[in-house]
Amino acid sequence: MTQEQHIVLNRTGQKMPLCGFGCWKVDPADAEETIYNAIKAGVRLIDGAGDYGNEVEVGRGINKAIKEGIVKREDLFVVTKLWNTFHAKENVRPAFDKQLQDMGLSYVDLYLIHFPVPLKHVAIDAAYPPGWYQIGAKDIEFERSPMQDLWREMEKIAESGDAKNIGISNFNVQLILDLLTYANIKPATLQVELHPYLQQKRLVEWVQKQGIAVTAYSSFGPASFIQLTDDGKTAEPLLGHPVIKTIAEKHGKSTAQVLLRWSLDRNVAVIPKSMNVERTKSNLDIFNFTLTEEDLAAIAKLELGLRFNNPDSYGFELPLWS
């Protein structure tokens, strides 16, 4: 069985791999070797961000693989993201240039706005990455940086070719609809939290109808812990869920592969992370089966509206999804 392994992006026609490797929570001490080994294992999409604090080491891993001839630069699809404290129009390009320099790359394939949250600027030489707070502050502080001005700066980076594509992350339909009224360059992708406990069916359908590709993060949901939702529902780890296990046994696959395949069957890209090379190889081995209508119906019943990446639950006084 041969299946398409890429999504064609709207403006450039560039092919973005449907399965990549996410760099969130990869310790800088491990990042160079982890990324290098992931590329050796067959990963061709690397998803990072300035806020992850490991771009220097991720870049070293990428360049090590290129230098050794494992891949050429054009074989890789490198993604990174603009952090919230750099939304003011005068701060966008300097932040991007810092990220390119840190990674040791001449361009990235996709540059995303990490969150639609304009935080007060923190100078690069004062704290980097700055996180959510001003230095020494206990509350987040916003600034008057309109999304329209930010998007114009993103478009300039795309027009320069230093980012082949530009896109968004953690945006809802209302904000995307507004952005589309003034965008000269439509976002190539939207990256959002997606898993069987948070399926966001209508969001995915609507965004794809606009010609915008979707990437899922946190595909494994509560990967290794029990999570209690605000309304009292309990959610057991998806990797051990009886429904997912039954489907995995039926197809002769792991539960991780089933969870990733669930997104692929919606034409949604995935960026799983594993520090284990064999699991990374297994995560890539998801193109030789599909889920049945019966499988999809069973997974649809797991919806809980359970979101793990919620700034409001971090004590930020930011109900982003309300």
UniProtKB/TrEMBL annotation:
<protein>
    <recommendedName>
        <fullName>NADP-dependent oxidoreductase domain-containing protein</fullName>
    </recommendedName>
</protein>
<dbReference type="InterPro" id="IPR036812">
    <property type="entry name" value="NAD(P)_OxRdtase_dom_sf"/>
</dbReference>
<comment type="similarity">
    <text>Belongs to the aldo/keto reductase family.</text>
</comment>
<dbReference type="InterPro" id="IPR023210">
    <property type="entry name" value="NADP_OxRdtase_dom"/>
</dbReference>
<dbReference type="InterPro" id="IPR018170">
    <property type="entry name" value="Aldo/ket_reductase_CS"/>
</dbReference>
<keyword id="KW-0560">Oxidoreductase</keyword>
<dbReference type="InterPro" id="IPR020471">
    <property type="entry name" value="AKR"/>
</dbReference>
<feature type="site" description="Lowers pKa of active site Tyr">
    <location>
        <position position="81"/>
    </location>
</feature>
<feature type="domain" description="NADP-dependent oxidoreductase">
    <location>
        <begin position="24"/>
        <end position="302"/>
    </location>
</feature>
<dbReference type="GO" id="GO:0016491">
    <property type="term" value="F:oxidoreductase activity"/>
</dbReference>
<dbReference type="Pfam" id="PF00248">
    <property type="entry name" value="Aldo_ket_red"/>
</dbReference>
<feature type="active site" description="Proton donor">
    <location>
        <position position="52"/>
    </location>
</feature>
<feature type="binding site">
    <location>
        <position position="114"/>
    </location>
    <ligand>
        <name>substrate</name>
    </ligand>
</feature>
